[in-house]
From TrEMBL:
Pfam families to which the protein is assigned, alphabetical: Methyltransf_11
Annotated organism of origin: Bradyrhizobium betae
Keywords of this entry: Methyltransferase, Transferase
Annotated protein name in UniProt: Methyltransferase
Coiled coil region boundaries: none
A GO BP entry: methylation
Taxonomic lineage of the native organism: Bacteria, Pseudomonadati, Pseudomonadota, Alphaproteobacteria, Hyphomicrobiales
Keyword Methyltransferase in annotation: yes
Amino acid sequence: MSTAGVISLERDTPELARTYERAGVLQFHHGKFLIGPLVLKSGDHVLDIGAGTGRLTEFVAGLVGPTGRVVGIDPLENRIAIARLRASQTLTFDVGRAEDLSRFGPAEFDAVYLNSVFHWIADKRQALLEIERVLKPGGRIGLNVQDPTKPHESRTLLRQAIEQAGFSERSSESTRVLGATDEELRALFAETGFSDYRSDLRSLVDLHGDVNSVLGWSEASAFGNFLGGFSQAERAAIDAAFAALVETKRTPEGLHLERYLRFAFARKPGSQATTSIS
């Protein structure tokens, strides 16, 4: 959620990384829906692109067991610093981007996944070409991504808050969804050599205790790009309007906000394809 469509990795801080680690259980649970269809088995080699602080990566390492190998990469050094606390003999982390996987050889991984990451990648085609290269024949890819046709409920409320605060002319660009539709994903996967593409849009639920939790998660998950183009005074007005709108979503369990993610899966063609994506 930035202005002018500019996403900066330099806005991340150690504090945001720590907030992400504390609140990241939300994204972790969504990621489990991504892992299941990849049908990971003992001994698999897996690459997690955009691993963040490594919570889901650690879970995957448990699935592939002591004979497997899991590598997590992320462009944000502060997040990788936390992730490395989870490292083991079969689980490693490093700073890296999806668009450049040159540190890995061809056909090195059985599966690659991107959990709530693909929408942040500027050159999606190059990223998929790199993933296709490092996958073994028959290797699987899974990702979940925001779909511009169905924005998260929090994003819809944020747009309303920006308009209520008097910045209607900036609301559209400030809440632009950086994701991909089913049609766009299908074309990208076909163009980069994948087969057996399928996707579905899922509705997930985020529960927060208060609006500060919502704002903290929004800031941390966007690594400092949340409302990045507004001044502190402007942000204060937007935050106040946003808080009032979010409170209308309160239930006995907490603040109930719908999140919508498109889950997409495909494989690299090849004779070694013995496991189907479920």
